[in-house]
Amino acid sequence: MNMQAPLQVSVRTTCPYCGVGCGVLARPDGLGGAEISGDPDHPANFGKLCSKGSALGETLGLATRLLHPIVRDTEGKLQRASWDAALDKVANGFKATIEQHGPDAVAFYLSGQLLTEDYYVANKLMKGFIGSANVDTNSRLCMASSVAAHRRAFGADTVPGSYEDFDEADLIVLVGSNAAWCHPVLFRRMMESRSKRGTRLVVIDPRRTATAEEADLFLAIAPGMDTVLFSGLLADLADCHTLDFAYISAHTEGFEQALARARQIAPSLESVALQTGLSRKDILTFYEIFRTTKRVVTAFSQGVNQSAQGTDKANAIINCHLATGRIGRAGMGPFSLTGQPNAMGGREVGGLANQLAAHMNFVPADIDRVGRFWNASAMAKREGLKAVQMFEAIERGEIKALWVMATNPAASLPRAAAVADALRKLDLFVVSENVIANDTVASGAHILLPAAAWGEKDGTVTNSERRISRQRAFLSVPGEAKPDWKIVSDVARRMGFEQAFSYSSAADIFREHAALSAFENEETRDFDIGALKKIDDEAYDALEPVIWPRRLKDEQPKTRFFENGGYYTANGRAKFVAPETPKLQGETSEEFPLRLNTGRIRDQWHTMTRTGLSPRLGQHLPEPFVEVNPGDARRFSLTDYAFARVRSAHGAAIFRVKIDEGQRAGSLFVPIHWSRTNTSMTRPGDLVAAATDPFSGQPEAKATAVTIEAVGFASFGFVIACKPFSLPESSYWTRVTLEGGEGALFAGNDGLAVWREYAARNREPSTEIIEYDDEKRGVYRVAHIAGTRLTFSLFVGSAESHMTWDAVRQMLSRQRIETKDRKLFLSGKNANGLPDTGPVVCACFGVGLHAIRDAIETKNTHTVEQIGVLLRAGTNCGSCKPELKRILQDVRTPQTV
Ligand SMILES: Nc1nc2c(c(=O)[nH]1)N[C@H]1C(S)=C(S)[C@@H](COP(=O)(O)OP(=O)(O)OC[C@H]3O[C@@H](n4cnc5c(=O)[nH]c(N)nc54)[C@H](O)[C@@H]3O)O[C@H]1N2
Ligand SMILES: Nc1nc2c(c(=O)[nH]1)N[C@H]1C(S)=C(S)[C@@H](COP(=O)(O)OP(=O)(O)OC[C@H]3O[C@@H](n4cnc5c(=O)[nH]c(N)nc54)[C@H](O)[C@@H]3O)O[C@H]1N2
Ligand code: SF4
Ligand SMILES: [Mo]
After folding, report:
1. Cα pseudo-dihedral 64, 69, 72, 74, rounded to 10
2. Quick one: which of 707, 686, 717 has its CA closest to 628?
3. Residue 404, CA distances (Å) to 17, 423, 556, 697, 713 in order
4. Cβ–Cβ contacts within 10 Å for residue 456, how many?
5. Fewer CB under 10 Å: which end of the chain, C or N?
6. What would the 3-class secondary structure string for 769-822 be?
C-alpha cells in the first residue's frame, strides 16, 4: 500500500447526518479514505463540525458494505446476482403483484437520508405510474407532526425562519429538543448568541439533558403536557395584554376559539402546575420572559413531534407566536428542527403518503396538475397508508410487495419485533442498502440492491432552514453499487415507463423537480425553486447553498415567510388551532407502572450502520443503558452499573443501569441506537407501542408504559480482538468498533469452562498466551500475543472487570505490548503508567473522564476553557462542553454523605 499517496483537492459537500446541514470539505487520500473538515464558507456551519461530522473519515471503510446485488434463491439462500437479473426480478415482481392484487398491494418505505433526486423518482414511480400512494417514509416517525401542524396553521408545510434568527433572538425556547447532542453545531450558534447578545435559553424536557445543563431556565415538564404549558402561555399573553391585535386581525383567524380552548385546558396557574408537574414560580418566570421578550424563537423537535398529541403540541406553540405577531421577523418564530439531513427535501418531493410532490396535496386540482406535469399513466387519487398502518397492512397480508430504501424499519419502527416478523410474510421484499447487515436485511429480504453511499453520490439535500445544499461525490463508487435514483429509474424502465424515467444524471432530475415546483404556481404554493429549473450541469455542480423559495421572478430572494401574512390557506389567513386536552396514550398499570422515553446520544447516529464504524465515536457511551431516577432505582432494587430488563406489552430488552438525578421519577430513558445487529438482547424499538397522533400518524415513541427489573448475571467481561469474532448466543453482549479491531462487552451465566474453551477456539496458531485463572473467584483473564502485538484478549470476572476495558482496548492499536501491560492481565489492576484515561468525554481528542477529573482536582482548573487549554478537550467541535461543565460542577461541589 502506498501510504504516501498525495492528498487530492478538497470537494465541498454536506454532512450526511443531522438536519443542521453542515458544509463539509472532503479531501480524498487516494486510498479510499478522506480528510474531513468543516466548510468555512457554508452558511449553516461556517466551518464548524460536531463530533459525528468530524469523524466521517472513519466511516468510509468498505468492510460492512453491500457491494453487489444479492438475490434469495429458491432454497432461501442469498446469492450474488447480476444487476440485470436483480432488476428484472424487482420489476417483474412488482408488476405481477399489481396485476394480481392491484396497486395498493405494493408499497415503498423511504427515508430522509435519501437525496432529493432519489426521493423524487421513487415518489414519482409510485404515485404517478404504479397508481398507489403507498409510499411513506421514516419522516413519519420524525417530522410528520410538524408537517401536519404547519399545514393546519399556515396552509402549507412552511418553516418560516432561518438560522439567522437564532443569531438575532433574545430568547430561545427549546421544546423537546436535546440540541446540544442532536443539533450540536446549531446549538453552539445559540450559545454564541448568548455570549454576544445575552440571549436567554429556556429548555422544556422531562429529563435534564446536556442541553438543559446550559439553560437559564429548565422546565422538567411531565411527559406529554407541553400543550398545557403553551395553552397557559397563550392565556397569560392575553391576560397581560401582550397580544398583537393588529397582526391577529389582519392575518389570522380562529383566535377567539383557540384562546377559549386554551383557557379550558389551562384554567389557572394551579392547574398548569398540577398538570405539568412544574412549580408555579418556574411557570411564571417562563411566561414573564416570553411576554417581555419580543425576539423569541421557539424551536422544537422529537419531544414535541413523537407524541400521540404531537400535532396539537406544535400548534399550541405556533398559536403563541401568531398571537404575538412574532413570526417571519428577525429573531422570531416557531422553528421545527429537522432530524435527518434531507427530512426537508423529502417533504418537498411529497415523500409522505398523504402529500403530493412540490408541496401539493391530495385535492382534485393538485392531483390533476401533478398528473399532467408527469404525463402520469396511473396517477394516485387518494392518500396512501402512513408508516405504522403500512406495516400493519403488511402484517395482515394486504401489502404483498415492499421496497425499503435507506431506512431500517425492523429496528426503528414501534413494535420492532412484530415489524420484523411481518416483513417475513412478504411475497416480495426488496432492500436498497449501503450495508450488508442490519435488522431489516436480516428480516428475510429477498433482493438486496447495493446503493452508493455518502461520498460516492451526487445530489441535493435541504436542511432545517430550507437551505438546499449539494452533496458531491469525492470517492469512486465501490463494487457494483449505484445511486438510488438510478436503481429506481432502472426498475421503472423495466416496468414499462421508459419515457418518464429516462434520466441520465441527478441534475436532470433536479431540473424536473424545480420545474414542477414552479408549474402553475403563481405564488399559490410556498415551495418554488423555479429560478433553478433551467440550471445546466455545470451550474448544478457549482450550486451554492440556497434557501427557498427561489421563484423565477424574484430579484431579492426572501429568507423568511409570513411577516406580512400571506399564508397558504384558502383565505390567506393563518389559522389558530384549538388543541385537545393532552393525554398520553397507553395507560400505565400495576404491571407497567413506568413510562419509557427514548432518544439519542451525542456520538451515535440511529442504528449505527455508519457511526458504529468509528472507534472514536464508540468510546463515549459504548453500551446500551437505561437512565433511572434514584428513587425508582430503590423502588425496583436496581444498582448503578448492573443490568436490568425493561419490559412492555410488546417486548423486552436488556440495558445497563445508569442512576441519574436528572432522570424524571416514574420515567426511564433509553437511547435508540442499538439493535440486534450489534447486541444480543437489546433492541429498544421492540418495547415501543404503536400509538399514533390522529392528525400526523406519528407514533408516540417517548411514553410507552413499561416496567423494569434487575437481571442478575453471574459473570461480566469483555472480548477484544484484532479480527471479527462471534460470541455465545446465551450471553448478553454489545459490540464496539475499536482502533485496530473490534470489542464486545458481555455478561452472562456461563461458567469459566465455557470461556476458557471460547478463548482457546479464538486463538491464532503460535500466539503467546498470558493467562490468569482463578476458578474460586470466578476470574479468568487471557491475552494472545503475536510477536509484540495483542491479537485477542478475554476478561471474565465480577462487575468490576469492565473497569479495565478502556485500558485493554487501547492496547489493541499499539505496536508493542510492554511488560507493564502484561501485568494488567495477570493482576487485573491498572499497572502504573497505563494511559487509562477513563470513559471518553471529548471524542475529537480522545480525552477521558479520569484525565479531566485529574486536571480539575490537581491543576487548579475552574473553567471549561481552562480544561481546553490543558487537555484540548472541547476545543474542536465543542459538543462535549456541557459535559465538561457538569464534570467541573461535580468535582467542585463538596460531596454530602
Ligand atoms: N447524535 C445524534 N444526533 C441526531 C440524531 C442521532 O441519531 N444522533 N438523529 C437526528 C434525527 S433523525 C432527529 S429526528 C433529531 C432528534 O433530535 P431531538 O428531538 O433533540 O432528540 P431526541 O433525543 O429524540 O428527543 C429530544 C428530547 O425530547 C424529550 N422528550 C420526551 N418526551 C417529551 C415531552 O413530552 N415533552 C417535551 N418537551 N420533551 C420530551 C426527551 O427527553 C429528549 O431529551 O436528531 C438528529 N440528530
Ligand atoms: N423508539 C424510537 N424510535 C425511533 C425514534 C425515537 O426517537 N425513538 N426516532 C425515529 C426517527 S426521528 C428516525 S429519523 C428514525 C431513524 O431510523 P432509521 O431510518 O431506520 O435508521 P438508520 O440507522 O438511519 O437507517 C438508515 C439505513 O439506510 C442506510 N443508508 C444510509 N445512506 C443510504 C443511501 O444513500 N442509500 C441507501 N439505499 N441506504 C442508505 C443505512 O445503512 C441504514 O441501514 O428512527 C425513528 N425511530
Ligand atoms: S451538526 Fe454535526 S451531525 Fe449535524 S450536520 Fe453538522 S456536523 Fe453533521
Ligand atoms: Mo428523525
Report:
1. -150
2. 707
3. 19, 11, 41, 19, 38
4. 19
5. C
6. EEEEEECCCCEEEEEEEECCEEEEEEEEECHHHHHHHHHHHHHCCCCCCCHHHH
Q: How far is the CA of 644 from the centre of ligand 1 (A)?
A: 23
Q: How far is the CA of 339 from the centre of ligand 4 (A)?
A: 4
As given in the structure block, the three cell numbers for residue 125 are: 414511480
| Nearest C-alpha neighbor of 881 from the set 852, 851, 850 | 852
Question: Is pLDDT larger for residue 849 or for residue 288?
Answer: 288
CA of 618 to the centre of ligand 4 (A): 21
Strand partners, 654: 645
Q: Which residue has the cell 389558530?
A: 576
Strand partners, 575: 253
Query: Which residues line the pocket of ligand 2, CB cutoff 6 A?
Result: 111, 113, 138, 141-142, 302, 306, 339-340, 405-409, 411-412, 432-435, 438, 451, 453, 484, 598-599, 606-607, 609, 672, 684-685, 688, 701
Pick from 654, 665, 662: nearest CA to 712 = 654
Rounded alpha-carbon distances, angstroms, from residue 202 to 190, 243, 321, 518, 542: 12, 21, 16, 39, 40
- Cβ partners under 8 Å of residue 421, min gap 6: 395, 443
Helix (H/G/I), strand (E/B), else coil: 892 = helix
C-alpha cell at 392: 400493519
- By CB atoms closer than 10 A (0-12, 13-18, 19+), residue 783 is buried
Q: Supply the DSSP string of 340-372, one letter for each residue.
A: STTHHHHHHTT-STT-BTTTB-SSHHHHHHHHH
Pairing of strands 296-300, 252-253: unpaired
Q: Sign of dihedral through CA atoms 138, 140, 146, 147?
A: positive
Testing ligand 2's pocket by substitution, the residue of 607, 608, 650 carrying the most ligand atoms inside 8 A of its CB is 607
In DSSP terms, 428 is beta-bridged to 401
Q: In what order do the strands lie in the sheet with 428-433?
A: 78-80, 70-72, 447-450, 428-433, 401-405, 106-110, 135-137
At 195-240, the pLDDT tens digits run: 999 999 999 999 999 999 999 999 999 999 999 999 999 999 999 9
For residue 174, the surrounding DSSP H or E stretch is strand 171-175
Give the CA angle between residues 241, 243, 249 to the nearest 5°. Answer: 130
The answer to whether the CB of 662 falls within 8 A of the CB of 209 is: yes
> What is the distance between the alpha carbons of residues 686 and 41, in angstroms, rounded to a whole number?
43
| pLDDT at residue 385 is higher than 60 | yes
Per-residue confidence at 729, pLDDT binned at 50, 70, 90? Answer: confident
Q: Check if the beta carbon of residue 469 is closer than 8 Å to that of residue 16.
A: no
Atom of ligand 1 at shortest range from CA of 671? 23
Nearest ligand, CA of residue 22?
Answer: 3
Closest residue by CA, ligand 1 atom 40: 303
Place of cell 389567513: 573
